[in-house]
Design a protein that fits this description.
Strand order of the largest sheet: 12-11-10-13-14-15-16-17
Number of helices: 27
Radius of gyration: 27 Å
Distance between the termini: 56 Å
Length: 638
């Protein structure tokens, strides 16, 4: 009983259980394109004629269940009608799936995101497979849109509105165990028993766990209270003029029970917004960066990090968290112990389960003697910024390294060409430049020196991708991309303070522009001494701002000393109230940053304008809704 299907297969066994398997033709991951949904509709037509005992929906892909809607189709929505049609397509189909007479079950293994989770929510049962790749979420807000295919209706009914809004407004994903605990999944089982468990649950007739009374009230009479609370939370992180989607999600849930078709003007406004267009652009830039290094078959198992300071220690901890065996070298165990303490805190926060925390901690090995060097696939030097010290280190370790190992430096200010002169194979040195804090910042610059070995660069990109960071290839030049564009921006901000504008007002101007942190608070966080050193190198001999000089002289170095432009004694910047922001201040402060990005593209430090935009967004947090600094300028020039 098979209609002509390109993306799905449908089979019915002797017991009368139907299984629909999605294996999207020509793609490595499943997404819900118009074709895929239309075929699913014809499967339901067929099952209307020959009703099965039950239906299991699963994926035929290694990569996971369903990654969401087809983003490429989203880019073609150039009229309000097309936007509404897209919403209607999934909303109508999933309502139909929910209403069938026979029991249905989504067998979720691997990623189940966006439209994929909305499909699973329309089934009577959701069975999650307990392995690390299983992740569920509604991340539409990250693309500047909303879950229009029933997620805003069904997720709050299933897990309660507080947890549902939290997922929809942050775009965060949850694993199988957590999904079961919060009631999103009916059960969570290991892969080896997923087939029999799916059949058993499908035919069990068991009712869904009812929502506690309080959650039911929050979905009903107390909706307004919940919605107002959610708006306040969102307002702390995103302004409605920059990010309209989270506010639309709250409104559609509160006023229309999650049915966007009841408010077509909201669909038109959100889908045609520059924010949605730009965030889809950012998504494509991110995918492009993820592609670097995929042509290399380099795979690291062991990593050796030299230098257990904040950067080195946190890089080592991140690699151990991502499953690698890491040796961390410094002169003494005393120097390594603060890094181990921070690593333990990171593992506890990210892994939550005692056995997993223990396993990660066991993979991070203090190594004062450098015994890990001959076994390492990647060696990262993260000692202090001094050419002679780095030379001595490279001389000592090169003869002990595996021939194919990647040798990398995390330098942010020294030229690779100067560092590699002592190596027998100088072409093998690459830069792998992480940003602070390592666990938060997605971007890693992979630096190629002149005449470097392309295979080493590829392997370095593959390694960065392996530890779930975004690799950005850049040429060796002062400050590479990210620090090079931040220097003139922070300089312009401090010049404004010299003119008598308060630090609070300068920061407010850039927060209103859409930056995640104001530039003066950023200087305090980086450290005024470091800003001073970077400024000397990157400001082209310009004089340091007076407000910076006077503070450095008094040893007011920012967050680390407890006092900089702001008082940090409480651990946070104590800010007074900002004054009225002078007209054009934000544009004036951002101009040197955009100018420098243009210059670096022209100089070939980064390959093209798109990658420059992606690098600055993921490396500095530059307002993502603008689509990046060069995209922002192009839109202004219209």
């Amino acid at each position: 009983m098979n209609v002509n299907l390109q993306h799905w297969t449908l089979a019915v066994d002797a017991q009368g259980i139907a299984t629909a398997i999605l294996d999207k033709a020509g793609e490595s991951a499943n997404s819900l394109s118009a074709d895929v949904l239309s075929e699913f509709s014809s499967i339901l037509d067929q099952l209307d004629v020959y009703p099965p005992k039950g239906l299991i929906i699963r994926s035929g892909k290694e990569a996971g269940f369903i990654a969401g809607a087809d983003i490429s189709e989203f880019s073609q929505l150039d009229t309000p009608e097309k936007g509404r049609t897209l919403v209607e397509r999934g909303w109508g189909l999933f309502n139909r799936l929910e209403a069938v007479k026979y029991p249905t079950l989504a067998l979720v293994r691997g990623h189940c995101l966006g439209g994929g989770l909305e499909l699973a929510l329309a089934c009577r049962y959701l069975l999650a497979v307990d392995e690390s790749g299983t992740k569920m979420g509604l991340p539409e807000v990250m693309l500047g849109i909303f879950p229009g295919w029933g997620g805003m209706l069904r997720l709050p009914q299933r897990v309660g509105p507080a947890a549902a809004l939290d997922m929809m407004l942050t775009g965060k994903t949850i694993d199988a165990k957590r999904a079961k605990k919060m009631g999103l999944a009916d059960d969570c089982v290991p892969p080896r028993v997923m087939e029999p468990a799916a059949r058993q649950l499908l035919l069990s007739g068991q009712p869904r766990r009812p929502l506690p009374l309080m959650q039911r009230l929050m979905n009903g009479p107390l909706k307004g209270v919940v919605a107002n609370g959610a708006r306040k939370q969102v307002a702390k992180k995103a302004r409605p003029q920059h990010y309209p989607a989270p506010y639309a999600i709250i409104d559609l849930w509160q006023k229309h029970n999650g049915n966007a078709l009841a408010a077509p003007e909201v669909i038109d406004r959100i889908i045609s917004s520059p924010t949605a267009r730009n965030l889809v652009r950012v998504f494509h830039l991110q995918e492009r960066m993820k592609g670097f290094g995929k042509d290399s078959n380099f795979k690291a198992k062991r990593v050796h990090v030299i230098g257990a300071g904040v950067m080195g220690g946190d890089i080592a901890a991140w690699c151990a968290l991502r499953g690698m065996t890491v040796t961390l070298q410094d002169q003494t165990l005393e120097r390594i112990s603060p890094a181990l303490k921070r690593a333990h805190a990171l593992f506890a926060k990210k892994l939550r389960e005692p056995l997993k925390i223990r396993a990660a901690f066991d993979r991070l090995i203090p190594d004062p003697q450098g015994d890990g060097v001959p076994h390492a696939d990647v060696i990262i030097e993260a000692i202090f910024e001094n050419v002679e010290a780095k030379h001595a280190l490279f001389r000592a370790i090169e003869p002990r390294m595996k021939p194919q190992a990647v040798l990398a430096t995390n330098t942010s200010s020294l030229k690779l060409e100067d560092l590699r002169t002592v190596l027998a194979r100088p072409e093998r040195l690459v830069g792998i430049h992480f940003f602070n804090p390592v666990s938060m910042m997605p971007l890693v610059e992979v630096v190629e020196a002149e005449g470097g070995d392309p295979a080493a660069l590829l392997a370095a990109c593959a390694f960065v991708k392996q530890i779930d960071k975004l690799p950005l290839p850049v040429k060796s030049a002062p400050g590479f991309l990210v620090n090079a564009v931040l220097a003139p921006y922070m300089l312009a901000a401090m010049r404004a303070v010299d003119e008598g504008i308060s630090p609070e007002t300068v920061d407010e101007a850039m927060l209103a522009f859409g930056m995640p942190m104001g530039p003066i608070e950023l200087v305090d966080t980086v450290g005024l001494d470091i800003a001073m050193a970077a400024g000397k190198q990157l400001a082209g001999g310009a004089e340091a701002p007076k407000c910076l000089l006077s503070r450095v002289e008094k040893n007011m170095l920012g967050k680390k000393s407890g006092q900089g432009f702001y008082d940090w004694s409480s651990g946070k910047a104590a800010k007074g109230s900002a004054g009225a922001v002078p007209d054009g201040l934000a544009e004036r402060l951002v101009k040197p940053l955009v100018d420098r990005v243009e210059q670096l593209v022209a100089d070939g430090v980064v390959a093209d304008r798109d990658l420059a935009d992606g690098g600055v967004i993921f490396g500095t947090g530059f307002a993502p809704f603008t689509g990046g600094p060069l995209n922002y300028r192009a839109a202004l020039l219209g």
